[in-house]
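Example record

The entry below shows one chain as it appears in the dataset: sequence first, then structure tokens.
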Amino acid sequence: MKERFSFIFLTAGIGFFITGFIFQMMGPLVFLRDIPMKSIEDLVREDADAEFYQLAEDYPEEFKKAFGEPTPVAYSQALRIGRDVYIAEGCWHCHSQYVRPTANEAVRYGAVSLASEYQNELQMPQMFGTRRVGPDLIREAGVHSNDWHVAHFYDPVAIQPGSVMPSYSWFYDEKGRPNKKGLAIVSYVQWLGSWRR
């Protein structure tokens, strides 16, 4: 009799585990599939951010070679490339893009992040970060100038003494001017949080 109950409990336990696993896996797919996701074109709309135009003015030859004229289409292209560079270089390992509702993060980085901030193509997959060695970047737009970012990517320690961020010299040409990757990553970082202005 005791073995019979053990078998029933074992079968029920495995059954509940499998059922729970299926619901945990399928639930988000079923319940979240109708949430609208904005494309880059929806985000850019009619015009690019002022920082993008400023990059075209500050680095005219490099900008023209990389993106042509500063149009919404070029801005969309720069944001895509910048996001890809951000992921490829592992920036998200040290810089989160999520202000958590714990440990007074709202005091340091501003209001706690909302789900609506991540419902767009540029935030997929979400880059919440694995640790926070550097500051959170979800609201970086306009905090620093383009020149600050260009100099910071070139030599972080010269801009932020004691920084452990490496130099990204491959974002620059032989003259020390930003190339396509450099212009794109600055555009992407300057876009982060632009919706909150």
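Notes for this example: Residues 1-31 form one domain. Residues 93 and 170 are 19 Å apart (CA to CA).
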